[in-house]
Amino acid sequence: MHVVVNAAMSADGKLSSRRREQIAISGEADFDRVDRLRADSDAVVVGVGTVLADDPHLTVKDETLREKRRESDRPANPARVVVDSSGRTPTDAAILDDAATTYVCLSEAASVERRAALADSAELVTAGEERVDLLRAFATLQEQGLEQVMVEGGGELIFSLFDAGLVDELRVFIGSKIIGGRDAPTLADGEGFVTEFPSLDLESVDRLDDGVVLTWRVADR
Ligand SMILES: NC(=O)c1ccc[n+]([C@@H]2O[C@H](COP(=O)([O-])OP(=O)(O)OC[C@H]3O[C@@H](n4cnc5c(N)ncnc54)[C@H](O)[C@@H]3O)[C@@H](O)[C@H]2O)c1
Ligand SMILES: Nc1nc(=O)c(N)c(NC[C@H](O)[C@H](O)[C@H](O)COP(=O)(O)O)[nH]1
To answer: Which ligand 2 atom sits nearest the alpha carbon of residue 152?
Structure first.
């Protein structure tokens, strides 16, 4: 499995405002870049915090890219994956529509009622007692044939994926805004590392509109 984390952050490293409301950090050129990355992926992964904040659809927007996928015997859209310990994904969430297969990764903490509600429109994967055990959940996804995986946030999930050693590549658009706020989500939240810090090797720097896209490989992968 190859895991790429992608995000758009402000010049001060925030993914959204302290109200957790989506901010236009990047513009159309970056959304096109993200669309191409989705089209190259077998799955797009988000945390339930992102589903609750943004209600994303996570589909490929460009019809030409969807057609190319069909021509190579792939579904028009990549699978969608939500990491959601207790099954808080609302049953009317956009990612649960029939545009693509959706996996909801739960822990043992998810109730029978939430499982039943989600099982109608998603494939359920259970790993971990309280939180989702990401190593086990991703191993199950790989068994389902998901090899090229893209993660679209948010900061809690991204930190945990680095912590679990699951990230191969990081692509970040850094935009020309200051969002500020000590409680605003950043690229990697969670508990934070204190003794050992994942290291990155810079692969490319590309100017895009009034910002920059940095591509990093995770060192020693
Ligand atoms: N700018 C961007 O590119 C971008 C992209 C995505 C999200 N966002 C923003 O990020 C915010 C949401 O991020 P967030 O950090 O609150 O939530 P998140 O999307 O990272 O989801 C975190 C949640 O996932 C669940 N979870 C289960 N197992 C977990 C594990 N092992 N590790 C971590 N989480 C686990 C928990 O319920 C946890 O609260 C929103 O404000 C959204 O707008 C921005
Ligand atoms: N590239 C990018 N620039 C931004 O300025 C910004 N705020 C996001 N945020 C990512 C976020 O996850 C979006 O919610 C999804 O890109 C929505 O995906 P859909 O259109 O619903 O498929 N992404």
So the answer is: 12
Cα 160 to ligand 1 centre (Å): 10
Q: Measure the N-to-C terminal CA separation of the chain; round to a whole number of Å.
A: 12
Domains and CATH numbers, the chain: 2-218 (3.40.430.10)
Interface predicted TM-score (ipTM) of this complex, two decimals:
0.98
CA–CA distance from 171 to each of 132, 135, 144, 186 (Å)?
24, 21, 25, 14
**For a substitution probing ligand 1, which of 4, 14, 15 has the most ligand atoms within 8 Å of its CB?**
15
**Which atom from ligand 2 is nearest to the alpha carbon of 25?**
5
Q: What is the spatial order of strands in the sheet that 2-9 belongs to?
A: 123-126, 102-106, 79-83, 43-47, 148-151, 2-9, 169-174, 211-218, 200-208
* Residue 147: per-residue pLDDT: 98
Which of 134, 156, 183, 213, when mutated, tests ligand 1's pocket best, judged by the most ligand atoms within 8 Å of its CB? 156
Kindly indicate the confidence band of residue 221, based on its pLDDT and cuts at 50, 70 and 90: confident
Kindly report, residue by residue over 11-69, the tens digit of the pLDDT. Answer: 999 999 999 988 999 999 999 999 999 999 999 999 999 999 999 999 999 999 999 99
User: pLDDT tier at 89 (50, 70, 90 boundaries)?
Assistant: very high
CB 155 within 8 A of CB 186: yes
